[in-house]
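Last lecture ended with a question: if I hand you only a sequence, what can you say about the shape of the protein? Today we answer it with a concrete record. The protein is HEAT repeat domain-containing protein. Below, first the input exactly as provided, then the predicted structure, then a couple of comments.
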Amino acid sequence: MIPAALAQAVAAADALPLEGAVGLIRPFLADIGWFSTLLEEQLAAMAADPLHLPGLRASRNGAARHLVIARTERVRITATLIDPTDQPPMRVHFSGRVVLSRSLNGPLRGEQYRLVQGRALSVGEGWWATGAVVETDEREEALCLYPGGRSLMVLRAQVAPPGPVHARIHDPVWGTLLGSAQVDEGHARALMLLSLLRVQGRRDAADCFSQALDTPLAAQRWAVMREYLALDTHSALPALRAMAREEADAAVRALAMRTLTQIGDAPCLA
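The predicted structure:
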C-alpha cells in the first residue's frame, strides 16, 4: 500500500545509526506526494466499494487519533488527527526519539520544552507555516502542540536510536519528572515469543530463553528469567544462580536471590 521507496527507506533505517536513519526518512516528510496519492487511492477504493477498508491500523489516545502508515522496531510514521482544544498540556512527553512533524491543514503552533538538569523547562512558543517540517530531538526536547479551535492533522515520523529508548513524562508547570520508562521493542517482541513457547511447554527451546537473558534492560532480563523458570526450572537454575551473583541491577539481583531461597537452592556467595 505504501510506496516501495518509503518501504525500503523504513526497512533500511532500522540498521543505521540515528542520524543516518533520520536522513533516510526526512525526504518523505519534505515531499508528501506519496501521501496524497495514498489518500486518493484509498478514497477511490471506498467510493467504488462501500465495504472496502484500507489496510492500515488505526488507534486513539485521548484527543489524538492515529493512522499507522509504517511501523518497524525503530521507525513509526503516522497521520495524526488531534481534536480541537484550548486546554494547556497536562504533561510534557520526551519520547526518546527524533520526531519529524508536518502540519497538513494549517500552521503548527506549540510550546517548546528542553530537559535541563532533569527538569522540563519551557523555551518559548513556536509557530511554523503549513508544510514546514519541524524536527524535534525528543531525547532532550519536546513540543506540546496547540490545536486551538480546529482539528489539527499532522504527518509524523518517529525514529528511535538503536537499543533501548528512554522515555520521560514531566509536569508542564513545575518541570518535575512524573514518570519514566525504558523500552527495547526487539527484546519485547522476543519476550512475547518466549511466553508463547512457555505456554506450549516447549522445553526443547530452553536455549532460546538462555540467549534472551542478554537484553540490556534489567526488567526485561527478569521477565525472561520468570518465563524460563516457568518452562523448565531445572534448566533455568544455573542461569538463576549466575543472576544472583553477577546481575548488575541490585533489585533484580535481590529477586534472583530471593527466588533461589524460596526454591531451597540459594548459592553460597562467599
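Comments.
1. The chain has a mean pLDDT of 87.
2. The longest helix spans residues 33-48.
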